[in-house]
Amino acid sequence: MTDYLNVLVAQTQLLRAQDAEARVRAERLALYATFSAALGGGIDSSSDSPADTQMKPAKHIGPFAQHKDASSGDRSE
Question: Rounded to two decimals, what is the model's pTM?
Answer without folding.
Answer: 0.48
